[in-house]
Predict the 3D structure of the following.
Amino acid sequence: MVRQTRDPLELISGDSDRLVSEFLEHTSCPDCGSSDALAVYDDGHTYCFSCNTYTSSHSSNPDVQPGLLRQPGMESNVLRGYPVRLRGRGLSERTCSKFRIYKDGEQLRFHYCDSTGKVIAAKVRDKNKNFHVEGKQDGSFFGQHLCPSSGKRLVITEGELDAASCSQIQPTWQFVSLPNGAAGAKRAIQHNIQFLQGYDEIVLFFDNDDAGRKAAADAASVLPPGKVKLSILSNYKDASECLQAGDVESLTRAIWDTKEYRPDGIVDGKTLRNLVLTPNPSHDRLYPYKGLNNLVHGIRYGELVTITAGSGIGKSSFCREIATSLLQDGDRVGYVALEESNRRTLLGLMSSASGKSLHLGDHDTETLANIYDSTAANWDLFLFDGFGSYDPDIIYNRIEYLATGLETRVIFLDHLSILLSGLEGDERRMIDTTMTKLRSLVERTGIALFLVSHLKRTQSDQNHEEGARVTLGQLRGSASIAQLSDTVIALERNQQDGSQHSDTTVRVLKNRYSGETGIACRLEYNLEQCKFTENETQPFVQFDATTDF
């Protein structure tokens, strides 16, 4: 008894849930003369993919009448070839017929349809993997005509073969592919956003490479938050490659085991248990001044500390003394002094360590050699060999190399204004950009960065060189200096006071760690020894919120 069919269109459509006959061979068509377009099936019926002529298996079948039957879109002049089993891709003829992936000589044709099922374009691939498009694509996804207007889940793949491969494994789900690959992912999503809104869940199943991951991020950015999930193949580039390898299990698992998409920077708090249970010491290193340690609780890696004062108050000397203290404790230190030569920087550090003002007066070679051998020769100190203005990008690069290449944990940058001196443009905007990059560099490398910054002139008759009080609002150039710094330390000294000209007040203007601000300590500078001595007997002025901010 000859097997009967339900509907000749079902045979042509390739719907795997409804096919009742199996393809046997391709042969010549007696109607149009095509040498291989006539498909013969095991129940006796035939269909020509060239002239669209259908012949039933039994002339007496009341449900199927011989004659010419046309699928939607068959009138299109870009529909060429016929579906065959793609053995190398692991795709059955049914799957290829369903998605209208047709073989046409040495070419593979991916037919794009409009919402009515009419073929409007074909993406053509030759044996050398060259692509061209015939007809005019309307921006819809490949295979979109097979999907209802709404549903629970829609899976979007990067390529046409990927969509077909997934559908063959999970035929009850809806699969489509991007029309123009990863590069056009965001545009394709935007174009089809109304269609996508009909689905509760959008699964992005893109290639397991940098381009695929970027495409997923771009596509997810224009979709509603919480609606996007990701399918990831860990051992294969894409779904087609996985099916080619015959690894049905991995492909099935990737289709089912989707993960909610979260953009970079968003972390589930439930995953941070180990992070909060990790011991967090109050400091990584200490300042050489007791009062400053009491107020800011030491030096911490991953923080940006800004040192500020009026001109000639001692910012560089203050930084050199901190650096010397760290070097003597065995720390690796990077020092980028843009306003002075390496000779001056090194002599300043050696002076602080030895208690001798080596940069002043004449010193014989033997003295300098002995001090060098007992200090710098034993330090893990790295200097930047430059003077004056430099391209800021070069400075960022060198600081990052000091941090990552040489593993220096503390770096001094003296100072911000020189870093910008070679640039043209709005000073405030340049400082904003520079501070953002320095902040990012600190976060990325985990270093402690000490940055020297200047002050703008006061509005009163007393200037900073005469001992004027320093406030955050007086940082020169931009509020971003204070905003992006973890700690801001100001030095105050009256250079014109003969009896007190060496007395320096250390004031903490900002302390993100504990919030404690105010006067930390008072230092007396000895010019002959090039050292600050902490005066612990002087009374401190208490913090006043009305004036300190």
Q: What stands out?
A: The chain has 17 helices and 23 strands. The longest helix spans residues 427-445. The domain at 290-535 is CATH 3.40.50.300 (Rossmann fold). The two ends are 97 Å apart (CA to CA).
